[in-house]
Amino acid sequence: MELLGAFLSLLLFFLAVVTGLPSRGSQTTRFVKANGTQFSLDGSKFTVVGANAYWLSLANLSEQDMEKVFSEISESGATTVRVWGHNEMPESQITPQTIYYQSWSGNKATINYGANGLRYFDRVVESAKRHNLRLIVVLMSYWNAADGKTGGVETYARQMLTTPVNHGGFFIDEGAKNVFKTYVKAVVGRYRDNPTVMSWELGHDMICMWVGGRKCPAGSLTAWTRELSSFIKSIDPNHLVASGDPGDYNKTDTDALEYSGWAGLDFEVNIVMDSIDYGTFSLSGIDPMRWIDDHVETATLAHKPLIFNKFGPEIYQEWLDKLVSAGVAGSFYWQFGSEDIRMNMPYWFYGDYVPRGSHTYRLLVDHAKAMKDRP
Ligand SMILES: *[C@@H]1O[C@H](CO)[C@@H](O)[C@H](O)[C@H]1NC(C)=O
Ligand SMILES: *[C@@H]1O[C@H](CO)[C@@H](O)[C@H](O)[C@H]1NC(C)=O
Ligand SMILES: *[C@@H]1O[C@H](CO)[C@@H](O)[C@H](O)[C@H]1NC(C)=O
């Protein structure tokens, strides 16, 4: 018996060496973590660089097309892909080809766990894993893309709120908040132990300007951001959490809209929250050189990493150089697209993707390398 025991331990040891499994009790973690202003993985720096591809989890891609998309993204030097982890649709808009994660009948929402729902998202996560790519999963969107067919805050507003116009009520209405929390709990809980997910973002470009015809009450988006990010942390201690906000400031003396508090958010307030692990910002009307410098300064003060979440499809070398030299931890261009896949909907009406092989695409391939080559 003792000999058998010794033999088994030896066998397990060799298996662990051969498969690279972490031995029990080691500090190895396969989850991406934040370390000061950088990201880390297993004690080494992890560079977050890649593409937005919001449609990837909404298009009804075949298994081959899904593999094709992820291998093309991987070939570009990306380490991470930013995708939508939500799609909420009124029942009347759902067709047999629709991928949706929540359906609405009147003001009642139902989570879709089926093959055209969260099981489809399982396929996205598995395919990303096969290509050694990680996902930033965005749980809501302020905008409804693809000509109003991809849900977002707007669907909640139309189905649930008495003041559906200028949908800021999404952040204030207790009923809407509870429905969103129920959904968040289902998704976050499902992938809680899955390290292919790099982080959760509360929403894309979340701003609060108007509720009905009135200005969004001061601080309501800030309160929502704090409540929802803490809620995710309470369900899932493994993953990073970010707001996904576009980075606007709330300063009193300013010459520009983006610094004036107009968006109902304050980047400086969001990034220092205990339940927020890194800062996000998107290309705005401000000169990118100034916009990048200001966000780096705020993130450095907060000792947290920073991701430039959205820029493009027009992209300049100068911006890319700036991201590298200023020490921005991650960048995602908008967006990856592929000509020859079959989809249920044309997700890029506005020519808003960077064609593979284009001049801009080559700049982005070099950029991914430059981001990774930094010490
Ligand atoms: C965190 O970053 C510091 C350098 O800033 C490095 O020395 C340390 O090893 C990093 N730790 C992890 C866990 O990545
Ligand atoms: C912006 O600043 C004003 C004035 O200091 C304050 O009343 C408001 O709550 C702030 N808004 C946010 C989103 O922090
Ligand atoms: C996706 O939708 C298209 C168009 O409706 C359809 O032709 C195709 O068979 C669907 N593919 C899958 C994998 O469901």
From TrEMBL:
InterPro entries: GH, Glyco_hydro_5, MAN-like. Keywords: Glycosidase, Hydrolase, Secreted, Signal. One of its GO terms (molecular function) is mannan endo-1,4-beta-mannosidase activity. Residues 30-258 form the Glycoside hydrolase family domain. Gene3D superfamilies: Glycosidases. GO terms for biological process: mannan catabolic process. Residues 1-20 form the signal peptide. It is an enzyme of class 3 (hydrolase). It comes from the Eukaryota. It catalyses: Random hydrolysis of (1->4)-beta-D-mannosidic linkages in mannans, galactomannans and glucomannans. GO terms for cellular component: extracellular region. The keyword Hydrolase applies. Pfam families: GH5_mannosidase (PF26410). Its EC number is 3.2.1.78. It is found in: Secreted. PANTHER family: MANNAN ENDO-1,4-BETA-MANNOSIDASE 1 (PTHR31451:SF39), PTHR31451. Belongs to the glycosyl hydrolase 5 (cellulase A) family. This is mannan endo-1,4-beta-mannosidase. It comes from Coprinopsis marcescibilis.
